[in-house]
Amino acid sequence: MTTLTDPPAESFKLSMLVYDTRYRSITFQILALVAVLLLFGWLTMNTAQNLNDLGKEPSFSFLGESAGYDINQRLIDYSSQSTHLRAAFVGLLNTLLVAAMGCATATVIGVIVGVLRLSGNWLVARLMTVYVEMFRNVPVLMWIVLCMAILIEAMPPPSAFRGDDPDATMKLFDSVAITNRGVYIPEPLFSRSLGDFHVGAAFDVSINLIAILIVLGASIFVARGIARRADAKQEATGLRPRTWHTRLAVIVLPTVVLLAILGFHLGYPELKGFNFAGGTYMRNSLIALWLALSLYTAAFIAEIVRAGILAISSGQTEAAAALGLRNNRIMSLVVLPQAMRVIIPPLISQYLNLTKNSSLAIAVGYMDITGTLMGITLNQTGRELETVLLGMLVYLAISLIISGVMNWYNNRVKLVER
Amino acid sequence: MTDTAFDTTPAIDPAALKVSDEVAIEISNMNKWYGSFHVLRDIDLTVHRGERIVIAGPSGSGKSTMIRCINRLEEHQSGKIIVDGTELTSDLKNIDKIRSEVGMCFQHFNLFPHLTILENCTLAPIWVRKTPKKEAVETAMHFLEKVKIPDQANKYPGQLSGGQQQRVAIARSLCMKPRIMLFDEPTSALDPEMIKEVLDTMIELAQEGMTMICVTHEMGFARQVANRVIFMDQGQIVEQNEPEEFFNNPRSERTKLFLSQILGH
Ligand SMILES: Nc1ncnc2c1ncn2[C@@H]1O[C@H](COP(=O)(O)OP(=O)(O)OP(=O)(O)O)[C@@H](O)[C@H]1O
Ligand SMILES: [Mg+2]
What we know:
The complex is a heterodimer. In chain A, strand 7 and strand 8 form a beta hairpin. By secondary structure, chain A is mainly alpha-helical. In chain A, 62% of the residues lie in helices and 8% in strands. The radius of gyration of chain A is 28 Å and the shape is globular. In chain A, the strands form 4 sheets. A 3-stranded antiparallel sheet of chain A has the order 1-2-9. A 6-stranded mixed sheet of chain B has the order 6-7-8-3-9-10, with helices on both faces. A 4-stranded antiparallel sheet of chain B has the order 2-1-4-5, covered by helices on one side. The N terminus of chain B is likely disordered. Chain B contains 9 helices and 10 strands. The radius of gyration of chain B is 18 Å and the shape is globular. Chain B is α/β, with parallel strands linked by helices. In chain B, a hairpin with a 2-residue loop joins strand 4 and strand 5. The chains are: A mainly alpha, B alpha/beta. Chains A and B meet through helix 9 and helix 10 of A and helix 2, strand 6, helix 3 and helix 5 of B. The structure holds adenosine-5'-triphosphate (ATP) and magnesium ion. Magnesium ion binds next to helix 1 of chain B.
């Protein structure tokens, strides 16, 4: 059926594929896709052929074999009898751990330094400039090694904590020990266990943890429902019921009750013989990597933050000042929220850089995914292609997730324009 | 600039508006330099409560700089500025006090684009005056009604026309309940049809007895609302007078030249 407003039907000509703006871009995209597919197909066939000639058929069965090496910093149970797959998983968790910690601290330091670099205080601004120039002009590998060296040289050995008059003492009410091997901190323990949940054959997840997460999630959901009801009431009557204490109680109480039922307590590190036992610890390799990555990336983030702030016109600051707002409020209420829009896209690439730079962990012996899968596993099994492909896939997946989350956030805070 | 915007506005009688003896702003012997450039020279100006003062003068004569000194967006280097009995010094408390009594509107509105119109208006009352949010919202809606855009309260500045944005900016200042309002060319960035809506808002303010200092090229507004017109050139106050006298019998040559240029004959 045609309506009166329909344009007169046009006969389709082949030349329109190239010259008609409606089809042109589609035509070229299809052509490019075909070319890329052909190239990949050729590369894969070629590699498979060459490996065949060498007598190495691509296979991932090595992942099920026993790894036979130890990993000294790990978030889940692991022993040298565990499989290569589990070793890789321990490495992956270690990568995620240092990347998450690094991104968080780098952001905090970066924002503070970036704001201070614009401060009216000459000395502070200059000091921040020195910091930024020092860190971003030296390769991050050197900072990692330097941090490691400083930690090993400057911290007391565990033996210094011994005796009646020890050279070193534990900090924070005897709960934290800082030594040249690492930092020992209390660990969360449960006296009652609900057992483990088996994922596949290799991984156990504590049901305690799952239960806590579920309860916490449900409480937050209920609390948000209460907040929404309060919003609705405010809109209807103009009066907002005071709900923060019920919301807080709804969030905190069930979790606390569950923790009590499960017999939650802290296990403190204690000096036993020549070393600390009990509690959990961060090896110096982790601390050094974390420190160096944070400080290095923070220097770049500081520059991004500074540029973002400078991109906000002075009119905004003046209008806020004329309204009587003080400088710190102007920064947090007016300038930074707007600067975020300029800051986030380059911030994403800094997060990605930090995550990828964390593969330098191998320099200080921190066993991340590069150290396990593409390090020892590769050397033991000789599966270069498979391990490297898996490793690349892992980094790709992490990076895509980071950019996905950040882009989602960026879209949420975008300015509303006409 | 022209006075056409005023053709349809009901005339008010400036003389009927009350000017009290109470001094709102006193500037004496004030000087300011940018580096070696002497922007403001020996400024003396006394503003009484309820006065509507229009400042005119060629570009670069220091009009903006002068009114920006009154709420310390610019710092003066010598002389005295006393606002509502408080002297402007580098003392933060004095600056806070004066800024909360003096509202200001800018040529480019400077609304906060990440906040809704309502949030723009409640930001300062909540954070500076510590007003409860509900009360701040009520005040904001009151002033938004006054500038005739309550229905836009939940939009963002980017979604409003220039004239609407400037009226929001005025409402935002009024929410702090200032006793003095400064305007720096509030209509210069607007299309002709929007100039009138902003000027109407300003006239209403004047009728309510607000003390106003207004840098503008709208000579129609000056004739209709001002009780005093000040002419500045090269950082000095060259001449000041009642509007009729100022426009009909300018005394200095520079004023005559300026008026002939601005009025287009
Ligand atoms: N931050 C600054 N640094 C140096 N010179 C400045 C600065 N701000 C303004 N000036 C100079 O001071 C003089 C007065 O500027 P001001 O903005 O007060 O003029 P104005 O009368 O408001 O002009 P216009 O009508 O164009 O707005 C101008 O010559 C200007 O170049
Ligand atoms: Mg100006």
